[in-house]
Amino acid sequence: NEVGCQIHKLFGKYPKLDTFDFVILSGGSNFSVVAAPEVFRQEFELIKGSNKPILGICEGCEIIAFAYGAYLEFLPYRKRGISKVSILKKDPVFENVKDFSVYENHRWVVKNLGENLEGLAKSRNGYEVIKHKQKQIYGLQFHPEMFVDSSVGVDIFLSFLKLTGARWYNLIDAAFNLSCKSMGDLSGYSLPLSSS
């Protein structure tokens, strides 16, 4: 709460999101959304039923993509390391960002999008940034919190925060830049955030 916000790590039943500014669906690797969609039923309901801004990171991106009918492909190898990404469509989430590099660590890639999603950026393996066409729902296939000195993941993450209108954006910007590694502790959590 040093930055004037509350972070709630959630598993299981989600509370009413009325008091939260936005939700982050973070990465994880315990279950594949393709192999075990029943595990993510609550996340699908949250994604489709909420009008709050949502950001999916890595597996969170895959959950968003799957919820809206995208095709995910299993890679024959684990994609781990820095990847070059090309922007396909301008969007406020890319404020001051051109084609870029990011850190990835996953086995699944988003290949074909459902009718409600659009691809904003792509690597040679698949979509890296997706967005819902009507809602403020974004997915990042990469890890914005990793290798912050050699990638623009943090810039894209902070642009998303700015888009949400969170009152404490400038404070979280400073805190995030000071302690990016703490996001690694959030793996596998859904994070509704509130500035109250």
Strand order within the widest beta sheet: 1-9-2-3-8-7-6-4-5
Rg measurement, Å = 15 Å
Total of helices: 4
Strand composition percent = 25-35%
pLDDT averaged over residues: 79
Total strand count, please? 9
Largest sheet: 9 strands, mixed
Q: Topology as H/E string?
A: EEHEHEEEEEHHE
Provide the helix percentage.
10-25%
**First CA to last CA: what distance?**
10 Å
Give the structural class. Answer: alpha+beta
User: Which parts are unreliable, with pLDDT below 50 for 5 consecutive residues or more?
Assistant: 177-196
Shape: globular
Give an overview of the whole structure.
- This protein is α+β, with helices and mostly antiparallel strands and 196 residues long.
- It has 4 helices and 9 strands.
- The protein has a 9-stranded mixed sheet, with helices on both faces.
- Residues 177-196 have low confidence and may be disordered.
SSE arrangement:
Layout: E1 6-7, E2 22-25, H1 41-49, E3 54-57, H2 59-67, E4 71-87, E5 100-112, E6 117-122, E7 127-132, E8 137-140, H3 153-164, H4 169-178, E9 190-194
Parallel strand pairs: 2-3, 3-8
Antiparallel strand pairs: 1-9, 2-9, 4-5, 4-6, 6-7, 7-8
